[in-house]
């Protein structure tokens, strides 16, 4: 077989078997198009480069799972890159929203501001939250840690833990419900 005319499907299948040469050729064949997709979504050159890198890391890790009967390699890689770019855009928008809200809250004058929470109440609340988190099953606690303390999106968590996205969404929802229940059982009294 002439390796110069190998299709992305053939290259991905061989990369899935551990052929790094096929993976390199797959990168050379598809990187420009995938970069264009990421750039079109994010409108940011540096972010598009990071997304392309993340996409090819994910492609390398998951190449062995590629099933040509479910669609073309090109379609699979485009879908993966598009999702990473959309997740990155959403994360940036959330960050921008938080910064905007913080700026708006900071603009409140001192006479409009509420008195600060007592350090004792804040410490007690923090203690109760830590205790509630420690009671959670390990998989739920890890999902919450990644989401709320490391700022990962649900898609990033699913990829990092090699779990289906639906499983991660359910796990986070159940964990939050459990924490709410645990915190509601012992309310802080003034």
Please provide a written account of the structure:
This protein has about 190 residues and is mainly α. It folds into two domains: about 5-95, RNA polymerase sigma factor, region 2, helix turn helix motif (Rna Polymerase Sigma Factor, Chain: A), CATH 1.10.1740; about 115-185, Arc Repressor Mutant, subunit A. The protein has helices spanning about 10-15, 20-40, 45-60, 75-105, 120-135, 140-150, 155-160, 165-185. The model is unreliable at about 185-190 (pLDDT under 50).
Task: Name some characteristics of this structure.
mainly alpha, 0% strand, 190 residues, single chain, 75% helix, elongated, 8 helices, Arc Repressor Mutant, subunit A, Rna Polymerase Sigma Factor, Chain: A
